[in-house]
Amino acid sequence: MGRTLQNTMINLGLQNACDEAVYQLGLDMEELEEIEEDAGLGNGGLGRLAACFLDSMATLGLAAYGYGIRYEYGIFNQKIRDGWQVEEADDWLRHGNPWEKARPEYMLPVHFYGRVEHSASGAKWIDTQVVLALPYDTPVPGYMNNTVNTMRLWSARAPNDFNLRDFNVGDYIQAVLDRNLAENISRVLYPNDNFFEGKELRLKQEYFVVAATLQDIIRRFKASKFGSTDSVRTVFDSFPDQVAIQLNDTHPAMAIPELMRIFVDIEKLPWDKAWDITKRTFAYTNHTVLPEALERWPVNLVEKLLPRHLQIIYEINQRHLDHIAFLFPNDVDRLRRMSLIEEGDTKRINMAHLCIVGSHAVNGVAKIHSEIVKTQVFEDFAALEPEKFQNKTNGITPRRWLLLCNPGLAELIAEKIGEDYVRDLSQLTKLHEFVDDDLFIREVAKVKQENKVKFALYLEKEYKVKINPSSMFDVHVKRIHEYKRQLMNCLHIITMYNRIRRDPAKLFVPRTVIIGGKAAPGYHMAKMIIKLINAVAQVVNNDPMVGSKLKVIFLENYRVSLAEKVIPATDLSEQISTAGTEASGTGNMKFMLNGALTIGTMDGANVEMAEEAGEENLFIFGMRVEDVTELDRKGYNAQLYYDRLPELKQAVDQIKSGFFSPKDPNLFNDVVNMLFHHDRFKVFADYEAYVKCQEKVSELYLNSKAWTKMVIRNIAAAGKFSSDRTIKEYARDIWHVEPSDLKIPPPNEPRDAGQDKTPNGTAA
Fold it and tell me: What's the CA gap between 331 and 344, in Å, rounded?
């Protein structure tokens, strides 16, 4: 979520009043804002997307709730020591959190372990361990519409009789100390992005948030006029018309068997009725196609922790496979492929399959990704129910990612086209009229220059590094992952360095290359990549032959509040994943909206950015998905590129020989070995096209006016990438609710009696 203070002031229309009031107290608002800790309760794009969605849902007047876990420790703080990443605990609640309100009156029990007893009256889950879920509510204000929604985060608490109701009379002290075991559930965020780690505590977290949330939703449903019993209809008939639940990836997939358990075991609905309601309630968003990221929980772990849920999953699977066998008699391989249970050394539950079978809608997060989901990853399921599969291209909130982080640019745009674009970003197309307006061109360039100077000052103050604000700011910030190819950027840096040294007199467009992002603590290769970048920076930044022509900065502890500083200062945005691996990306959109140009592959939302702005207004290079597929078919041979490209050979040889690690020449052996022998993401295959494309970038940067005109064309084409547009599509196509742009009256004005009736009754 990042910080809340400035976002709240902007959405409430109070920023200028607060700035002025604080100034009159002799304080500086910006200094105050810097004191607030980031709420870093997610890993990368998926978590930030949820935050943007909450802002848009409130702004569109949807009756929507965001549910999650109130981690005591969020994503780790990253320190760089001697070029290596070191993790520190993110004790973000140390000084308290003024934005949250604990709601003990809504505390709910969550059950684990135990066993299942079957009788004539149905199944009973008994002898369980209970953990209490204590909700904390954080307000989510819409933009200037007097709507405030709720984000409800659950914290784990041990019941007061924990470990004391058993025969445990003896050790009272130990029993109280053991309360920590239950409360560890909400202690810490697992720091993996795009990687599945099948740990018991993680499964506990996933079920914890799901069980508490579903009880909360059903309590709210029953308390509403819709849930009241009438003599004809079952109480829950209207449930899917009143409730929509969106599964953000497979992490909350246990919600599907949990809702079935509530309906069948507790509410005593017949299975078919319960299943119909469940399917119509859930929809599933897929966020990645990387096989290592797909959740596949061992059956024996689920059996121990959630025995009743395993039985329900087996029943769901049996009925699902019976249906497939009926449609495709004797096709055993299809049954194996489509089963929720994967056979093997350890039987596993494929959570994505569970989500597809248990949902009425499945979507990817960019056109190209949704196509891959349909035709490759889940092709058997899409063949069966093509109408179930949709696309919803991601977006970003223009409140945080323009108004808040780039007030200079936001104001400049408002002067030209009015202020309405903040709520309707498609209005940015009006900027096309000003693409040849010399004054506007100069003003856009001036705002960018001011942002660069400000960021350079910040870098100097915080990290004691001096950079040249007139150099091109070439920025690559995102989680560190092989598929995102920070290594390819690194090879380009080394290539530029070698060119400067080879011909120091030759004209070179000065660059400051800024790379930032966190590596999962257990991801060895990602940590080696960080060390390599820092080792290269060490050499480049201290070579007198290079001077101020090329500087390399590794940005420590990349997070939302740092993104808000670096993105507005960026000239060139690096979006260089191997085609077919980045589901969407959202950083790409933030840079586009803030006046950076993009160098990127035809991957994720880059494809749609090129479609909106015109491919000639982005620096697109490298293999397309088809080329990658073809190269896989032929077999990728890295050696070929190394032998054919002298500059690539030189760069790789320098890494290999210890040129960047003289004290330990073998330091980067693992990296080099990976690049030659098991590089799934084909860095060498795109190197030549990347370097050539970067030459075109430098050439255009020399012509400030032509560069800025291209920037304006990009900003004018960024309207599609508002999360407001994304949420309107979810609301229309999946949740079946109507967004309202009605501004509800403020609390100090009397409301009409008629105003109480909500036009969109469904809560998402």
Answer: 19
